[in-house]
From TrEMBL:
Biological source species: Ameyamaea chiangmaiensis
Gene Ontology CC entries for this record: plasma membrane
Cellular localization per UniProt: Membrane
Transmembrane segments: 62-83, 112-131, 151-174, 186-204, 224-245, 266-288, 308-330, 350-367, 379-399, 420-439, 445-467
Membrane-topology annotation of the record: Multi-pass membrane protein
PANTHER family referenced in this protein's UniProt entry, alphabetically: NCS1 FAMILY PURINE/PYRIMIDINE TRANSPORTER, PURINE-URACIL PERMEASE NCS1
Protein name: NCS1 family nucleobase:cation symporter-1
MF annotations from Gene Ontology: nucleobase transmembrane transporter activity
InterPro entries xref list: Pur-cyt_permease, Uracil/uridine/allantoin_perm
Record flagged with keyword Membrane: yes
Family membership: Belongs to the purine-cytosine permease (2.A.39) family.
CDD domains: SLC-NCS1sbd_YbbW-like
Keywords from the UniProt entry: Membrane, Transmembrane, Transmembrane helix
Upper taxonomic lineage: Bacteria, Pseudomonadati, Pseudomonadota, Alphaproteobacteria, Acetobacterales
Amino acid sequence: MLMTPDTLHPPYAPDLCNDDLAPIPLARRDWTWVNMATVWMGMVHNVVVYEGAAGLMALGLSAWNCLEVVGVAYAILFVTMAYNARGGTRYGIPFCVLIRSAFGPRGAQVPVILRGFCAIFWFAVQAYTAAQAMDAILCTLSPGWASLGLRIGGLPVHMALSMVAIWLLHAWIANHGVHRIRNFELVAGPLVILIGLAATVWAIRVGHGLGPLFATPATLHGTAFVAAFTTGVTGMIGMWATFAVNIPDLSRFVRSERDQIVGQAIGLPLTAIVFTPMAIIVTSASIVMFGHPVWNPITLLLLLHKPAIMLFGGATLILATLSVNVVANIMPACYDLMNLMPRRLDFRRASRLVLVIGILFMPWLWFNEAEGIFRVLDIIGGLLGPVTGIMIADYFVVRRQRLTVDALYRHGDVYDGTDGWHRPGIVAFVAGGLAASLGQFVPSIAWLSSVAWFVGVAVGGLAYLALVRPRTARHATQVTS
């Protein structure tokens, strides 16, 4: 049963708070830098990031250039997330509550719903990828598995059953709550890295060194190289732009600012720089073995025709997917749904709702319309760039890192704006979103899409500072920490 806000703090509005959304007392924030690092390790090594190296090399960059792109992109992400996480660490509040200071309690629902949409979509996509690995494992164990020819909703019944198994695994982990998720990542994150290192050693033996991909030079030079490099950096940032917004969902559990920064530094840029060459080296080995690069790890496992490797490798891919999905997608989506219905949903109920909505997305059909779907997601991701800029501008410049936490859970207080809508936040969000998305619709400035996230962050943040009224800034100094 959900506790009512009255049992948490009498002044809290019942439609703005429940146990899971309430501030976490300092005594209960028990995540160390180790927990933060392993959570990020669990997120960074996933199939989408693995295949991202293929996209970079397809632009005409060399393998070494790919590592440079990854280094620059994840350094920018680390700085952005380290700053945006500070409010969560200091006050123990999630993204959907922190953002109320810039948008108002009702206006905050706009970016929260957008973020929730992205989270549930990516959950469905990642879960479907894991289901493919599960299906490959079951086909290996039982050759007759793939012969189950019935179709359910356009999906072969054997694949549908594999998806059911994956969905149940997600439900089992999420049902244990946030603190057990931390324990799961404590094991899963480092374990997948160790397995990746073993795969890399195997690939180096097969390729008699780093392999042909590391010997292939870049095919671009001059302005073309700069354009491709910039596009690569933006694309890599785009994979995590949504998480740059809701990083307070994790940092609220961390016991200190130092733990948050050290953990993210180890788990985010460092892990990414280690993981990317693993993907490239293993793919190099596939060229030696099959004569062409195989970037999809599931396809590579099937081509090897070794049951033991298929079972072990498939289980690793499932573990890696569970690791990223639970923290990067289910957790933020749960908070976003709870923010919409705090009196009806707690974390466990919200996680079950995420699983149901994820099925309704029918990711097996979306895979056939990848170009259109990812264009929509690029637009939504561009809209979240301004949210990042607005949050940083509001917290560091306008509020000077000082918030009245109780006021975030009340209507008619200092953050309420006009009937719950803080207009500078809404207008800056629209302005930044339009600027970031313009390249998608105007061919003459299509190049803008390659830096859409940067444009969104800059325009959103600067527009917010220009629009916020002087009296709002004065209110920022009349708060307690």
